[in-house]
Amino acid sequence: MKFTAIAATLAMTLATMPVAVLAQGAGAAATCPNLMITYENVSKEMAANTASSITDNSAPRATLREMENANALSRANIALNLMRDNKCPLPKEAPDGVTYLSAALKCRGDLLESSASERPATCERSNWTRSGS
């Protein structure tokens, strides 16, 4: 049972990683921006988890969110190591759940107000801006 959950998490993680992280031999010019996006997406994922926790009092789901955050931080570590190995510019701060919290809270509120068949535009993470920007 535990193996199935781990395999499913790994499959989901690999499916959401940019190709540049998985591909070998890609040029640094193409690799560096993709690695930075991967690194930045960790903060967005953690912010979304924080926003979803506000309206949820389930202990099992809270545990799952913490596991998702730990997996996201592992992806950030891999991206950071690849950035260093490819001599990419390194980020100046660690990923956290607060950087994109305003956008995540707006998305969460819109999700709660919308029908299940539509995803609000505010939930498109590529459009999220840093809090205070």
Helix fraction?
55-70%
- Termini distance? 44 Å
H and E order: HHHHH
Rough shape? Answer: globular
Mean pLDDT: 83
E-strand count: 0
Name the poorly predicted regions: 19-24
Biggest sheet character: none
Count the DSSP helices: 5
What Rg do the Cα atoms give?
16 Å
- Residues in β-strands, percent: under 5%
Return the structural class.
mainly alpha
Overview of the structural elements:
With 133 residues, this protein is mostly helical. 65% of the residues lie in helices and 0% in strands. The protein has five helices and no strands. The chain has helices at residues 2-16, 19-22, 28-54, 59-85, 101-113. Helix 3 (28-54) packs antiparallel against helix 4 and helix 3 packs across helix 5 (101-113). The chain is globular.
Descriptive keywords:
globular; 133 residues; mainly alpha; single chain
Task: Please render the helix and strand layout as text.
Elements: H1 2-16, H2 19-22, H3 28-54, H4 59-85, H5 101-113
Helix pairs in contact: 3-4, 3-5
Short summary:
The chain has 133 residues and is mostly helical. Helices cover 65% and strands 0% of the residues.
